[in-house]
Amino acid sequence: MRSDLLFVYGTLKRQGHNHGFLQSAGFRGQAQTPAGFCLLPGPGYPYLLPWEADTWVRGELYQIPDDLWPKLDWLEDNGKEYQRHLGWFFHLASKQWLPAWVYLALNMRPEVDAHCQERILCRDGCFDYRTS
Fold this sequence. Notes:
Radius of gyration: 14 Å
Shape: globular
Strand content: 35-45%
Number of strands: 8
CATH superfamily: Gamma-glutamyl cyclotransferase-like
Largest sheet: 6 strands, mixed
Helix content: 10-25%
CATH topology: Hypothetical upf0131 protein ytfp
CATH class: Alpha Beta
Number of helices: 2
Order of helices and strands: EEEEEHEEHE
Distance between the termini: 34 Å
């Protein structure tokens, strides 16, 4: 499976303070993770983590040019704080599952159960990081 798409869920979203990094990327629409993910609040940005509950996370899909991946890996501290993973995301407009990359938090497992259960869910069981 290959993809040039990136699923963003926090500060890279439109109106997020890191959205400027995506100037050369093409917005492809709203999307969400499959069930089994949680957003954990961090110090000014969220962490996306796998979680055992029937919840998902809303975000946006962007088509990323090849020369932008190294900048995004640097921004996300790929391999240290986050790890880029390839997965499937539901594109809301087309109602199709599309392969896309996402940055998942590393080394956060002890905090997941303590914090995800305290999060306020949207009515449909979805976490949504508000950038504004």
